[in-house]
Amino acid sequence: MSNLPLIHDLTLSELEKKINALGEPIYRSDQIREGLYKQYWNKPDEFTNLPKSLREHLGQIFLFNPLRPIKHQDSSDGQTRKTLFQLHDKLVIETVLMKYDAATHKGQGRRTLCISSQAGCALGCVFCATGQMGFKRHLTSGEIVAQVLYYARILHENDEKVTNIVMMGMGEPFHNYANTMMAIDRLNDPRGFGIGARRITISTVGLVPMIKRFADEKSQVNLAISLHAADDENRGKIMPINKKHNISKLLEACRYYVDQTGRRVTFEWALISGVNDSEEVARNLAARLKGLMCHVNAIPLNPTDGYPGQASDRQRANNFKRVLEAAGIPCTIRMRRGIDIQAGCGQLAGSN
């Protein structure tokens, strides 16, 4: 694939400056932006709102399509699709589309994208397939954005649109903070992709300095924390990051976030049978979270080849939820999605 710079890596102001430097009128940048982020065009010759000479020139100096789809997998219920993409340097990432029909969910049917921020991951959570594969590299802001535009184009062809974006694919978004936030800015900007900030969620394993930095930005983007244990000993066994940022430091950062933004934190909890799903663990968790504006999203563990743990059964999951709610901590048992195609949380590994 081409080694040309990716046009999606340009901020909207950088795009204006580049077009101006080419001697073109400034309104050409608006036309290019419209084509990229509203029409989802990914080839220079699709930009029919531009003169042919400019289309040809842009094709010589920019890459317009950084993702080569290698493989699609659809879940047996037809509600989840996973795409394996190859990047220009032959590394691969995975992106997931999840459909939630209006008949089974409040309001209009949702079309949620789970997108990646890195090829691989350096944090090494033992139950996560991405963590098991190790870190390859950060994605650029344009490579993050391009995942959204790829599926936006497919949905548009069926008169549908992306309604929600979760940064829960491969990688740790806050380890790639600058590129992640630049991508989100372009996705949120009305002149860019134009999706509302509250329809975007960033999930982190708990990089405390970055949580505080994010809090200081007072963004309306949702924050989710992968917690998975209520004490340092057990969290350290499954999440190595806890040795650097323990639970007390993490929850202190979460309280700072709530104070700065007035927004609640979501805690993600993979229910692992016999490990973190007992009523005693739920009581300990409730004590830890007391007074913090938060919500617990629990989901039975999704299986991966590199971790022997098993998912909690329905009864244990319901008991866990009951104890939390009795203590005043809102809890939802999330439904597992795309397990048969390894598209669930923690299952993405960029494998052929």
Keywords:
352 residues, alpha/beta, DNA polymerase, domain 1, TIM Barrel, 2 domains, 10-stranded mixed sheet, two-stranded antiparallel ribbon, 11 helices, 12 strands
Main sheet attributes: strand count, strand direction, barrel closure: 10 strands, mixed
In the CATH classification, which architecture of the largest domain applies? Answer: Alpha-Beta Barrel
Taking strands numbered 1, 2, ... along the chain, how are they ordered across the largest sheet?
A: 1-2-3-4-7-8-9-10-11-12
CATH class descriptor name of the largest domain: Alpha Beta
- Tell me what portion of residues adopts beta-strand conformation: 15-25%
Mean pLDDT: 91
SSE-based structural type = alpha/beta
Total number of helices: 11
How many beta-strand segments?
Answer: 12
How many domain regions?
Answer: 2
